[in-house]
């Protein structure tokens, strides 16, 4: 039987995963919000369906027929998960569903004053986004599906990294002493998801982070070094005039352990630190 992945939310991570799976013979379908993107995805061989808040899948039963794996990456809205809000009954009725993955965030752990967290750490979110994700995780666990939760750190990759920000002149080197962030390359996310699909363990939770939490200022400085340009000046966080989202970002300081994805799934990260990840982006970028 052909393995079929249905992605609720064909965004940056899901699209890169879809390409890898299709090269291995998978059928891939999923959702997007606009007819323009739907046409583009269909042109690449992905069976794209329109879906958004207030716009459920048309003929959901037919769209989900034959699906063996589901990946959900759409963030919660107004206190509920959009996928479950629209299609909880449809998902529960599916036959032959082997694996469901929900992409959450390490923001569910909250502020840890630079301390380490793992999958067993208590959830104590301090931001609205983190609180919404805790609620969404609970909704997915209650759905009675073969669920796997993936708590993602900051996602970067080609087209979405400090390399592009420095080149565009938009990078800022904001400094908050002692502050570190966790990050994960988009292709390492795909590797973890593929490993989980090959070794299903319903109920499992995995943190996705690389091996080296680091300050965003250090990452920007390294990107500038790779590009052979001067780094932007340091800006103390108090003078950065951050948006509410930026303030929330800098309000939490923690180090995220990735040991479970290595021990349970046998994953070796292609980009164990931002240095390998940015170097690869440099090699891949257009001249």
Task: Walk me through the structure.
The chain has 287 residues and is an alpha/beta fold. The chain has a domain at 4-156 and 184-211 and 256-272: NAD(P)-binding Rossmann-like Domain (Rossmann fold). It is built from eleven helices and 13 strands. The strands form four sheets. Strands 3-2-1-4-5-7-11 form a seven-stranded parallel β-sheet, with helices on both faces. Helix 4 (82-92) links the parallel strand 4 (69-72) and strand 5 (99-105). The model has no long low-confidence stretch (mean pLDDT 95).
- Average pLDDT, all residues: 95
Proportion of β residues?
15-25%
Spatial extent as radius of gyration: 19 Å
Give me the CATH architecture of one domain, please: 3-Layer(aba) Sandwich
Q: Briefly note the CATH topology name of one domain.
A: Rossmann fold
Primary descriptors:
13 strands; 7-stranded parallel β-sheet; Rossmann fold; alpha/beta; 287 residues; two-stranded parallel sheet
Brief account:
The chain has 287 residues and is α/β, with parallel strands linked by helices.
List the helices and strands and how they pair.
Layout (H helix, E strand, L loop, with lengths): L3 E5 L3 H12 L3 E6 L2 H9 L3 E4 L9 H4 L5 E4 L9 H11 L6 E7 L10 E2 L10 H14 L5 E6 L1 E3 L5 H7 L4 E3 L7 E3 H13 L6 E4 L7 H12 L6 E3 L7 H7 L4 E2 L2 H7 L8 H11 L3
Parallel strand pairs: 1-2, 1-4, 2-3, 4-5, 5-7, 6-13, 7-11, 8-10, 9-12
């Amino acid at each position: 039987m052909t393995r079929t992945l249905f992605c609720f939310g064909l965004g940056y991570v899901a699209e890169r995963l879809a390409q890898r799976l299709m090269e291995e013979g998978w059928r891939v379908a999923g959702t997007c919000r606009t007819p323009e993107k739907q046409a583009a995805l269909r042109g690449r061989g992905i069976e794209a369906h329109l879906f958004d808040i207030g716009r459920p899948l048309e003929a959901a039963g037919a769209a989900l027929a034959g699906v063996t794996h589901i990946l959900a990456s759409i963030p919660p809205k107004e206190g509920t998960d959009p996928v479950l809000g629209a299609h909880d009954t449809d998902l529960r009725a599916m036959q032959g569903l082997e694996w469901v993955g929900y992409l959450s965030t390490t923001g569910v752990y909250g502020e840890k004053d630079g301390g380490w967290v793992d999958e067993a750490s208590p959830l104590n979110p301090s931001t609205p986004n983190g609180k919404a994700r805790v609620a969404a995780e609970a909704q997915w666990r209650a759905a009675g599906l073969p669920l796997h939760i993936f708590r993602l750190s900051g996602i970067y990759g080609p087209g979405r990294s400090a390399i592009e920000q420095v080149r565009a002149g938009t990078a800022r080197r904001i400094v908050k002493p002692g502050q570190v962030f966790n990050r994960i390359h988009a292709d390492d996310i795909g590797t973890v998801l593929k490993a989980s699909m090959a070794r299903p363990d319903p109920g499992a939770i995995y943190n996705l982070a690389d091996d080296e939490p680091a300050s965003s200022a250090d990452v920007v400085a390294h990107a500038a070094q790779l590009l052979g340009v001067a780094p932007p000046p340091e800006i103390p966080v108090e003078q950065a005039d951050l948006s509410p989202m930026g303030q929330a970002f800098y309000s939490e300081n923690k180090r995220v352990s990735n040991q479970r994805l290595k021990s349970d799934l046998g994953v070796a990260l292609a980009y164990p630190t931002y240095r390998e990840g940015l170097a690869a982006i440099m090699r891949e970028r257009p001249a």
